[in-house]
Each structure stands twice: as structure tokens, then as C-alpha cells.
UniProtKB/TrEMBL annotation, chains A, B:
Protein name from the UniProt record: 2-hydroxyacid dehydrogenase
GO annotation, biological process: respiratory electron transport chain
Gene Ontology molecular-function annotations: catalytic activity; FAD binding
SUPFAM superfamilies in alphabetical order: FAD-binding/transporter-associated domain-like (SSF56176), FAD-linked oxidases, C-terminal domain (SSF55103)
Source organism (scientific name): Caballeronia mineralivorans PML1(12)
Matching Gene3D superfamilies: 3.30.465.10, 3.30.70.2190, 3.30.70.2740, Uridine Diphospho-n-acetylenolpyruvylglucosamine Reductase, domain 2, Vanillyl-alcohol Oxidase, Chain A, domain 4
Amino acid sequence: MTSTHPSLIERLHAVVGDAGLVLDAERQAAYLTDWPRKWTGRTPVVVRPNSTEETAAVMRLCHQTRTPVVPQGGNTGMTGAGIPDMDGAQIIVSMNRMNRILEVDATSNTMTVEAGVILASVQQAAADANRFFPLSLGAEGSCTIGGNLATNAGGISVLRYGNARDLALGVEVVLADGRVWDGLRALRKDNSGYDLRNLFIGSEGTLGVITRAVLKLFPAQHGRATAWVGLRSHKEAVALLSLTQSICGDRIIAFEMMSEFGMSMILRHVADTQRPLSGVHPYYVLIELADAQQELPGTLLEEALAAALEAGLADDAVLAVNDRQRQQFWKIREGVSQAQLREGHPLKHDIALPIARLVSFIDEANALIAASFPQLPVLNFGHIGDGNLHYNVLLPHGLADDERERLTAEVNLCIHDLAIAYRGSISAEHGVGRLRRDELRRYKSAVEKDLMRSIKATLDPDQLLNPGKVL
Amino acid sequence: MTSTHPSLIERLHAVVGDAGLVLDAERQAAYLTDWPRKWTGRTPVVVRPNSTEETAAVMRLCHQTRTPVVPQGGNTGMTGAGIPDMDGAQIIVSMNRMNRILEVDATSNTMTVEAGVILASVQQAAADANRFFPLSLGAEGSCTIGGNLATNAGGISVLRYGNARDLALGVEVVLADGRVWDGLRALRKDNSGYDLRNLFIGSEGTLGVITRAVLKLFPAQHGRATAWVGLRSHKEAVALLSLTQSICGDRIIAFEMMSEFGMSMILRHVADTQRPLSGVHPYYVLIELADAQQELPGTLLEEALAAALEAGLADDAVLAVNDRQRQQFWKIREGVSQAQLREGHPLKHDIALPIARLVSFIDEANALIAASFPQLPVLNFGHIGDGNLHYNVLLPHGLADDERERLTAEVNLCIHDLAIAYRGSISAEHGVGRLRRDELRRYKSAVEKDLMRSIKATLDPDQLLNPGKVL
């Protein structure tokens, strides 16, 4: 165990007080293991600053004592970015006390929040002001907006509203040396200098600690329509996306695909789920439209589905008749995460592709897996509207550790080499963290790695911010 | 005149050939004076590479010989960012030969272009594929998409579609030393590392030369509705924006305000313009809605206008009955630039503010100008929906140079100090270039200037890229 500077904890205590320090092992446990239970680390102390000033003072102390820092939000990440290593030298700076909504400005359509506000609270505060905050993902009840911005979270409405970075007008960031960059702007246009905001957003805590943000709000969506569609293959899914866009415009907020393999797995493992359609189809699509007008989404989606059935792109389709049914559709879609864990050990792949290349990617990946790993089933689902495919491969439970590690490495290499050959990304929305760091080194060009490293060296010359992540 | 490396032009010739070099003064003239005719510079040579490889070879030569470079697009910028200084040492690298549209992918909703493609050609190519590329601004017939990205252009549909940076999925950039960063991705999600794309976009050619881009396309907007509204004051304009958003959702693509002072000026100076409404009103707003559905925008806009008249927010309103009338409305809006030049010497201010603070900013600015410069009329218009105000102050023609310079400095200081006090921006969409460089130094925090300078030093250590601009 590396040693922590002797007076550090005392000095941190002077900044954040008793409520701001977590020293005992039992209370630290929740901060030290990530949500998928893939990584566990050790830390001398979890520090919970209560303001930007306290965060800055904490970072100044860490800078003076050369103490490495792991910033943490709701600890719901998929790549281990928020977990310290096992050396026990890295302190965790948790933002979970900075959880105030500072302002909702319905005229400007903005909300100013501290980094530790839970995403669901942001959504609720927007709804309370008759506005809409579109970021939405499985962990929304426990993830924080600061974590969403640090990882540039995606989720289910990217097609219409973009990723987390597109939903923030400004951020405030505490730098590695404790200085504060005040980029907390509520402006929809600002061309006065370099875009620092987007550099910090998505940098997974390796360039600075996001402490506050100004978020974009949208007009409330009073109308919503959701359909479940049965299809012959993934090829029809991509064609159906084009057809739906041509009829419904850009008010499609979600376009999610799933195979029958995934569907049957969910029906087996997730309580209170049933088939929305009477028949069995090789593939399914969940489509959701939203609009300020109440009636419109239903009318348009019906029109699109009729055209799809007519054109032979869809084999069967049903429109949710009420909110309960709509939630049942989503329960299926969201049941994937749980079901796959019951079925096996999922090797998750978070691939992004140009939409026009999805079909051939899936065909080629299926052929590769069938040839090299004929015993391994493929669970293939995702945000097709964004070109984001969760092309997961299931290992059986109970494999020996070394066998599981060997297969993981081989399958990842196979899928990720193919994604790169298709000019895709090996991390669409999950980020890099610890999970994809070595692979990033394999796939990024020398120029890009050099640019990233020199920016890191400029902003964090002592490598104190989230060491061992991303780069 | 600073000397150019003796063999440079010969070596450039070996890269780009005769067609790629402009050496004679007459042909150089169009590259050496900017569109508002505010800046003129000198250059030993204008180099026009025909490919990324040629651009990279040119930059390598400039790097080897320590030759400063001014990248140039359509030369329509507002801040002198594309014009060299008078020393005669800076070479111009014009992208105007790299004007090919490389791919239109209607399934992925993307278009891949070279940097020198004219914006109007991008719009047309999208329309030809039954898609929509929303970036639209006065100079669209001559500005290039590379210049739009380098300056993060705004224009008239930011409210709905964002700025230029929001419309590019990927860019390819030649760096200061001639290396090429291949960020030419057609992905809607990519969290595999730092967001380098947004660092180059909006950096006004000071961090790299954008050579190609993948642009986002949208479903074709078959329906469009445009209204001209007469109002009591700017206060009603902001309230009308909220009301229109609540009824029409986010399909409002333009929400433009203008005062009667501006209107009467346009009627005097711009041919074929007439009042859309019979009466005279202190303020006017142009609202435009677009949607994939043909009928919807008209129906919704009518509903919004009826509600506005009912609520006393609008005094009169007219909906364009056909495309000709719609163009007449826009002709008034776009006539401002021309009319103000006839009326005086406009001191242009490109202010961005939180939308809720527009009204009090205008009130306070009017009071300040009336108190300190009672002889100077204010021409106040802009993209209200984005919080972007062109708060221009007109100097009379024929002032002595020193008097004009004194007034310019005093008025800018007054307006820009106020904008900063309101947590606004002194450059919403025009950029910094040479025009606002000194002011940027005044208004940016020490931390922000330090971050910008260290990023510049990292990416362009020899200060060869567009020296004297932005920083």
C-alpha cells in the first residue's frame, strides 16, 4: 500500500468537516465497488465536498501533496472509471453532497445544477416547470448529472436530443491544481474562444472535476406514442428506421432493436413480462415518438406502421394504447441487462457504426462468432437509430477464470477489430475507463493518442486526476 | 516586409503545381481583403491545395521553414480571421479547390464533404437526396463549410438545430506540423477518448486546418410556415417566444426580432421591400416553423398567433400565404446588413445572453447609450430565440478617423462591459479573429486564458497557425 501524505486527512477534515469524510471501511464499501461489481479498489479516504469552494480546496491539497484523485458521481459507470485501484493511495472525491438544483429558468429553458444531483431529479424538476429534460438511461434513479457529463452519457433519446454533451450549455470545473474554470454559461451561442466545455465533458474525470452545470430544457412533450414491431431480420429494422423518419420527421425519440433470442431470454428471467405481439418474430423494434402536440405522435406512428406493413418491412405491429402498455414495452427493452446476467456471463460490446453499415456488420460479426466460437450465443440489441449496437456474446456460467479471460480477450478482439474495420467505435456510450484503456491504445491512431496525451499533460501535468483511466 | 524562406515557393509549387499557387498581385487581391472590407493584408503566396495530402505537405513545408499560415475558406468572415497581417510573411492556405461532395448517405443521414464546398451546395445536395441540412446564413452562397466549422457559424436555425459544431459528426484536420488527425467519423455516439472534434471546430484556424467533414442530415421538412408579427416592445417579443414554444414545441426554427427603426431603414434602402402589416409597430418578430408534415406548421403557428393576439402579446400578425411572401419577410430580415451600411457606420455587437435577461439588457443598454451617446441611434435586432442580439450602434458617415476610432472604442466598452455583467458573450456567432482579440483578453478570466494558451502551445508550439487571431 502506497502511503498517503501524513497530514492530508487532517487538512482535508479542516476543509470538509466530519460530514465530508468517510474513513471507516464499512461506509467506504459502497464507494469502492462499481455497479456491475467488476472492479474493487482501496482508498485512504472518501472526501465529500459540499461546494465548489470546498472541491477546489480539496484539489489544492491533493495537488500540494501529490495525492491522486478519483472523482465519483453515482457510481453507476460501466467501465470502472469511478473506482480507485488497489494500491490504496488514490482518494475518492465524491460529489454526492453537491446535490442542489440551483435554478430552473423556464424562460431561458435552462436549469442550473450541482454535479451530484440525481438524473431523475433533474427530469422531475424540468417536468415540474412544464419543461422536458431528455437524458434518460437505465441508471437514472441513481446516476448523477455530473457523472453523466463526465462520461458523456447516451441512453434512449440520443436520436432526437443528442448525448449528454449536447444537453449542457455550460459547466464549472475544478482543475487538477485546484483552480476553478467558470464555464457556467447559460448561452446557446458563444464563439468567444476555444470550446473548453466539450473537452471536459466526456473526459471521465481525467482533466478536471465537474462541479456545476447549466442544462438545456425543451418544451414539454405532451404527446407520446410507442409501438412494438415484429420483423423478419435486422435488415428490415434499418429500412424501417428510414421509412419512419421519412413519415414522422425527427420526432422519433427512440428506435430500439432486439432479437427473438433476447426476447425469449427476458420472458424467462424478468417477472411480469409478456409478448406484445401474439406471434414470434426473428427481430423486434420498439419505436417511440414524442411531440408537444398530444394527438400527433399516435397519428403519425400509425401512418408509418401501416406503410411498413404495406411495404413488407414489418410483419406485425402494435401501438401502446395507454401508459401502462407503454411501460410494458419498455420493461422488455430494459429487462435485457438483468436477463443476460441470469443466462450467462455477458461479454458486452458497445459498438457505434454508421447506420448504413449496421446490417453488414451484424452479418459479418455473426459469421465470425459462429466460425470461431460456435458454442457462444449472441445477444444483439441496441439503439439502432443512433447506430449503437450492444453486440453481446454470452459465456456460460461456471467457466474457470483463465478460460473466461481467454475467451473474453479473443471475442473482444474479434468484435472490436471488425468494428474498427467498419470505421466504427468500440465505445459508443459507455466510455473508456479501465475497461477499454488497453484496447484504446490498440485502435487509436498514433496522432490521436499523441493529441490526447499532450492535452492530458497540459491540464494535469502531475497525472493526479483519475490515473489509470482512459489513457 | 518579413522575408519568406528562399526556396519555399519553389517547394510549394512542387506540391500543388501551377493551379495551386496564386502569385500575382491582381489575382491575390480577392484573398487579401475581407468581405466587410475592414482588413487588408499582404502575402507572398496564396496556396490552394487540392487534397488532404497536399494540405499536409504544404503544412509540413511551412513547419520546416517556420512560415506562418492563414487558413482561408470563402473569405466571408466578420472578424478578419482569414486575412493575413501587413508584414507579408504569412502565406494563405485557401481551401477553395477542395470543393467536392464525397458522399451523401441517406440511410445514415450523413454527408461527407471537403472543406471548400460552398454552404449552399451542401444544402442543395441534401435537398436532392430528400434530406435537410439546416445551417443557413446570409453568406451561404459564398461561404465554405470548412469556414463555417472553423468559426462555428450560427445563422438562422440555431434555435432548433444548433450551431455548426452540432451539425458535424466528424472532421479531418491537418495539424501545424503537417500530421493529419483522422477524425472523419460518421458516428452519432463515440465515447472513445477526448472530444478533439469540438476543440478544432470554432478555433478559427489557430489549432489546425479542417480539410474534410462528415455532416449530419435531417429528414426533409416538407411543411413550413412563416409569420410576421407586430409588437409593442421587445418585452412582448421574449414573452411571445415562450408562448410559441409552448404551443409549437421545438419545431420553431427561427425567431427573429427587429425594431421599427430597423424596419424603416430597410424600407428606405432595400429595393422591393414593403411592410408585411398595414400598421406601424415599435417591434416586429419573424417566426418560422418547419416540420416533416406539410400542414402542421401552418396550423400550429396560426394557433400560437391567435393565442398571442388574445393574450395581448401581439398587436397584429400575418402568416405568409405562399413562398413568395415568405421570401419577402426574409428579405426584410436579411436587408438589415445592407441598410445599416447606407444609413451610417454600424458598430456591430454580436451579444449572446440568457434569454430571460434579454429584456433588461436592452433596457439598460438603451439607457446607457442614450446617456453617454445621445446622438447615436441604436439598431437592435437578432436571433432572439437563441439569446443572440445584434445590438448595433450607428455612427454617422464622414467622421474623422480618430473620432470614429474613439467612439468605436467607447461604445464597444460600454456594450461589452454590460454584456459581461449579464454573464453574456461578446461574440455569439461571429468569432474572435482580429476584431475581438484585445477585448477577449479584457473579459476572459485568467484561468480561461491560461487554458486556451496552453492548448494553443501544445498543438501549435511554434505559433504558425493563424498568428494574431483569437489569442
